[in-house]
Design goal:
It is a single chain. This protein has helices spanning 9-13, 21-29, 33-36, 114-124, 129-135, 150-159, and strands at residues 46-47, 52-60, 63-75, 86-90, 94-97, 168-174, 179-184, 190-194, 198-201, 204-209. By secondary structure, it is α+β, with helices and mostly antiparallel strands. The longest helix has 11 residues, at 114-124. It starts with 8 loop residues before the first helix and ends with a strand.
Length: 211
């Protein structure tokens, strides 16, 4: 399956919350270059201020993005400590059916752009538990989390396997009216499951790399 030209979020759900490449270029021209030239930490470490563990770079057409797995900072203070000791921990996985079993959600689903897929799903099924749950997360002041696509899940398996139980996780990439793509976090296998299956799913966010 090859990605077809995608319907934009603005076309699908009106005033979308996604920041487009053109928006970032305009911001850069306005002098907000510090936000666009941030340097990521080492892969697998918590990216301070960015709401998660750095997973690496995902390519989507001509663009490249930093991918971040949602994580919170748990207070591990013990008796006798004068100051809190915060340790980053993965944001809890959601577990639910993919949704819309027997129906094909309209739009060009992507293997690489889960943000786009999440918007398509919410446009068709506003109460989808995974898509809605991912999009409602807010960490470090960021609220642009989404349900990762097929290739984004594969990057998470390759670079952050220690943060996942060895079980099937849904991707936001639709396969057909009956099935969607999944990622197995034991051996890296990808396949399809019935949309009616209850599997785990995680949330991510991305930052566009200006070149």
């Amino acid at each position: 399956m090859q990605d077809a030209p995608k319907t934009t979020l603005r076309e699908r759900i009106g005033a979308a919350s996604q920041t487009t490449y053109q928006d970032l270029q305009a911001a850069n021209n306005s002098g907000v270059s510090a936000l666009l030239a941030i340097t990521p930490p080492r892969i697998g470490t918590y990216w301070i201020g960015q709401g998660g563990f750095y997973a690496g770079i995902v390519r989507d057409g001509d663009h490249q993005w930093h991918l971040i797995l949602a994580a919170t900072q748990a207070d591990t203070t013990t008796i006798g400590h004068k100051e809190p000791n915060f340790t980053p921990t993965p944001y809890p996985a959601l577990k639910a059916e993919w949704g819309t079993y027997g129906e094909t959600i309209p739009g060009e689903f992507s293997r690489r752009d889960g943000q786009h897929n999440t918007a398509l799903i919410l446009a068709a099924e506003p109460n989808n538990p995974i898509a809605l749950g991912c999009s409602q997360i807010e960490i470090d002041g960021h609220s642009d989390y989404y349900w990762p696509a097929q290739c984004e899940n594969n990057l998470l398996f390759n670079n952050l396997p220690e943060h996942f139980p060895q079980e099937l996780h849904w991707s936001s990439t639709q396969f057909s009216a009956l099935n969607a793509w999944n990622q197995y976090f034991e051996d890296g296998h990808q396949g399809i499951n019935s949309k009616g299956s209850k599997l785990a799913a995680r949330a991510v966010r991305r930052i566009l790399i200006i070149q």
